[in-house]
Amino acid sequence: MLILSQILLQLLGFTLLSLSLSRNYSKVIKSTNKRLTKRTSWIIRACGYSLLIIAVFWALNSWGVALGLVYSFATATLTATFTVILLTYTRST
Amino acid sequence: MKSRFRQSMGWLHTWAGFAFAWLLFFIFVTGSLGYFENEIDRWMKPEIAIVDDAIDDFEILNSAKQQLTVLASDAEQWYLAYPSKRNPYIKISWLQPANAELGMPKQWHEEYLAPHTGKITPTRETSGGETLYRLHYNLHYVPAVVGYLITSLATLFMLIGLVTGVIIHKKIFIEFFTFRAGKGLRAWLDVHNVFSVLPLPFHLMITYSGLVLLMGISFSPVIDATYGEGKKMHRQFYNESKTENKQQQTINLNTADLSLKAELSHKPVLSLKTVLTDAKARYKNQTVSYLGIIDRNIADNTEQPSFQVWLDGNEGIEFATLLSYRLVDGQIQLEESLGKTHSAAKIYDILEHLHEGLFADTYLRWLYFISGLLGAAMIATSMIIWVKKRQNHPTKFIILIDKLNAAVVVGLPIAIAAYFWSNRLLPLAMSNRAEWELHSLFIVLAACACFCIVRAADKVWKSMLWIAATVYALLPIGNMLTTEHSLLASVQQGDWLMLGFDLSMLCFAGCFALAAVLLKTGQNETELTMKTNVKKNMKGVIKTC
Fold first, then answer.
1. For residue A63, which residues of chain B lie inside 8 Å, CB to CB?
2. Could you give phi then psi for residue B312, rounded to 5 degrees?
3. What ipTM was predicted for this assembly?
4. I want to staple B245 with a disulfide (CB 3.0 to 4.6 A). Which of A1, B88, B308, B338 is the partner?
């Protein structure tokens, strides 16, 4: 369960981070009049980073420093790769 | 050299990578397989009987002791491995002293016991998972020291490649999530970045720790300078650096049952049985993974044998706790090791444990494996990019490199499949059977290279991918025909390791076939590598859940 919540938290974090970039934002949110403003980008990015930081601290707290870091980095590889795949292969309508 | 910093780093990145790309691909693939060493071992010894119910620790001890007394009466060390989730079988091993008459060197032997009956289960002679992963630093056909030096040099270049790669990658955050599929060279560069940047912590850790692990060899002049040259002098260095902090105490043994108490009332006696009882009483929540005796038959009787108990509960990334019992002046002394004394040795230990990942559970083990394969994929994509960049004016040399790239990138997986196949197909009574399994690997690799050279350049990748798909798809069938382990039988017996191995082989076959199909339709196989990763990632997740 702990692993699953880590994965979900990081996945959300990375998704937000990717959306804070205009290239990915306009790909996911198709409507042309909704361009990514600097302010929105900043907010999304801050949320993404906070989620990732929460995930890391939670991992450190649950597994200890050594194992927590290993779990965090390994999970980050998994979730970030998954985000890239989603962004590349989902065809939004 | 180019004048501008980033350009010269780019030059270094290209050629540092080019110099050792094939070897590094080999190191990453065989090294990644090391994370599943035990699982591969189980597949390569299909005779082993797995323990699927709880057996009393003392019952296992009794049968192990009986066998060891018969087989290894003159051995210096005895070990008994208790069944665990990852190794669900009973294994005994012993260090047999050299026998000059038979011309046998001092060496380790191991046997597996059938649960309940306690009889030896004869297993086939095989190189197993251990020899396969050791290839990634000893290279097998060269003397060990040469292997260590060559792999260290390759690792050094890998580290250079990683650092220069980070420097030349200008938009590391903006392009963090970018993969523009199906756009030729651009797509290959993107996928190379994805494979490099996302598992970057793993790549840096594995490369740096790999370099440090072999520093005793690659930096031996440093040891020479302080301790003097030669093995004997170096021994001093190792002994000093291996000094451990130990907690020593004189104890009375915990005795669980009365008969043991009566036995002990005369004088303190240490035996495997008494130390097992004591350790179980001391650490009630932990399971015992190993029992052992060292210094069993010391001729001059100056030292008493030491009894060891390994407990499974590991702390962080540290190994299991080790308790050792020894009789000193009629008193029982219990020693617990608390890690290395010196900080350099502590750091070395941390890097070693991180590199080997022995502490990892199933989830982390799969992620280690996937990260390793991503590293291999990073190197493979870099080889392809090198060729693609020069494809506008193809010379014979570039075409040859492209063909040999196919021979390494797809040929190595085929050769590893051949290693597995040889385990099932070579006659059981063959002499040097284990050695021939390894020969098969390298013979097939050489054959792949020959095939790639003669095959037309535009067809070579596709042919190789189809061959790989076929040999992997047939492995579970070969397993079913030559042993009693069909997929169905594995499910029925709850033999999850055997089943997992066979299913993984089918999964690899699927990935190779998909790659071949996608190549045909003109799509980039990068996409497929991405899909491969999804599959593998999903598998890791499913296994953990």
1. 316
2. -75, -30
3. 0.91
4. B338
Which residues in chain B have their CB less than 8 angstroms from residue A67's CB? 316-317, 359
DSSP bridge partners of B539: none
Q: Can you say how many angstroms the Cα of residue A91 is from the centroid of all Cα atoms in its chain? A: 19
Q: What's the pTM value of the predicted model, to 2 decimals?
A: 0.89
The C-alpha atoms of residue B149 and residue B219 are separated, in whole angstroms, by 10
Instruction: Select from A4, A66, A85 the Cβ nearest to the Cβ of B530.
Output: A85
Does residue A60 belong to the interface with chain B, where contact is any CB pair within 8 Å? no
Judged by CB atoms closer than 8 Å, whether chains meet at B367 and A78 is answered as: yes
Which member of B177, B364, B545 has the closest CB to residue A83? Answer: B177
pLDDT in tens, B227-246: 888 888 888 888 888 888 88
- A31 part of a folded domain: no
CA B137/CA B151 separation, integer angstroms: 6
d(CA B182, CA B526): 8
How confident is the model over B323-344, as pLDDT tens digits? 888 888 778 888 887 778 888 8
| Domain range annotation of chain B | 47-123
Containing domain of residue A84, as a range? 2-25+36-89
Probe site for chain A from B177, B204, B352, B529 (most A CB atoms < 10 A) = B177
Q: Which of B318, B399, B311, B410 is nearest to B22 (CA)?
A: B410
Q: Residue B313 — very low, low, confident or very high, per pLDDT cuts 50/70/90? A: low
Chain A to chain B Cβ contacts (< 8 Å): 82
Residues 6+ positions from B271 with CB-CB distance below 8 Å: B307
